[in-house]
Fold:
Amino acid sequence: MKHLFLLSFVVLSFSSFSQGFLHRDGQNIVDGNGKNIVLRGLGLGGWMVQEGYMIQTGAFAGSQHKIKQKITDLIGVKNTEEFYKSYKANGIKKKDIDSLAAWGFNSIRLPMHYNLYTPAIETEKNGQITWLEEGFKMTDDLVKWCAANKIYLILDLHATPGGQGKDAAISDYDDSKPSLWESTANQDKMVALWEKLAQRYKDNPWIGGYDIINEPNWNFSGTNQNGCDETLNTPLKALQVRITKAIRAIDTNHLVIIEGNCWGNNYNGMFPLWDENMALSFHKYWNTNDTASIQTMLNYRTQYNVPIWLGESGENSNVWFEEAISLMETNNIGWAFWPMKKIENLAGVTSVTKPEGYDQILEYWKNEGVKPNESFAKKTVLKMAENYKMEHLTIRYDVIDAMFRQVQTNDTKKYKNHPLPGRVFATEYDLGQNGYAYSDTDVVNYDGTKFTQWNKGNKMRNDGVDIVTCTDKITNGFNVSFIEDNEWLQFTVDVKKDGNFDVDVRYANEKAGGKLYLELDGAKISESIELPVSGGLSTWKTITIKNVALKQGINKIRAHFEGGNFNLNFLEFKKTEK
Structure:
């Protein structure tokens, strides 16, 4: 038995290490066998570094230290420690990584807060650097779960000692204390942390790379506070060179990933590069998905013979996701979207349910009204932490479909089974691209200075279709709203037997103009019907389309809205008697 165990261990070890280390091969990232690797990743934002917008405190407590102070003031130090212990324990578990691998991700970007690995310089004595086991244990567990799923873990120092940018929420920057750039001690601690990480993981091939500093945004000599007009970036380059050399004295295996100023994108002064095994990261939000939008990075790749990687992106519609990922993969660029979990998350693969009573706490924090009692507040925040477990999440399968299947094809796929006769809820239209599964007017946000809502109701799905909470007595919880002229929805249905159907249209409107018909294979299969005024957007009525002929089997029926300004709950197909 002992020999069998040893043999099994050797086989397991060989299979685990056979793919080798990710590394640079000219302009490509390849594995140990020289195979080109397109990283398809997700960032675990909010786990080690809380950002206020993810838990809906961004308007008044964006940075983690401010969030923690709000919670402490409400429930006390001991209860706050209990909350954070639960929050971190539930935030990412093996089940989360198993799920990401099953959905198609081959990599994970871990946004790390330095204070889980080493204390702040203000608490150290005589310039010493001491270590905390918590962060290393969390990272060890995560890389073990990644290895079990054969996906890469990229370490991302998201919150550096002192903070690396004026955009405080990103790095937990506290402007009452010296920043990374204003403190030699903070820089020394950051270098020592990367040395510690390199020592720990130098022989682990499932560590995909070291993203050594996330989104620096600091003005060294320019006028833009986030470093967007810097021409030299001398301190940024100097620190990244120093860290790279410190890593290389220990670890010659792993890819070192660097980022420019201005949230990762200003590379002025960063060239020439100083290491043979490097990649450049850039971040992309709220802009167009054409070659021009990434041309600068493409030029860097060619000019300096170095791989490029979209290290962070997301927070947009499914249309934008499909476009952006298609653009990346067409240009052999890996990507990591953001984030995995946040409260009421529409534009992500999962969503955390807001606990009952949390709005009362948010209202107090925002406007300082009646303070919730400690028992109530503790119960509420602990429930929030509990809701971060995978088994309590809402999985956004439409987002996953957009990020993987829709990148490969414009074919549509049923959202769920719709056997006919039967009821088809309007919000359960097919999965697929705009123009194929549905047609909507506003489907994406391309402008970071002027927000465009793609789903005006911000409910259920991340497509361009506008969905709100339904008030009807018969409902799946939601209905399609804000319908405009000439939009349409497609439904894949399974007709059990040839025949004619009467179709009940359940709708609500407050003014005239609504009009629709049904279509199959490009041909109308019903008359156009006008929707009389029901009396309001929450006053539901039914009108019937008569004698719709359908053939047995799978049919892709489109509901065309010739006129808009109404809410649509469902279509109910009823077999007529001959």
Summary: DSSP finds 15 helices and 25 strands in the chain. The radius of gyration is 27 Å.
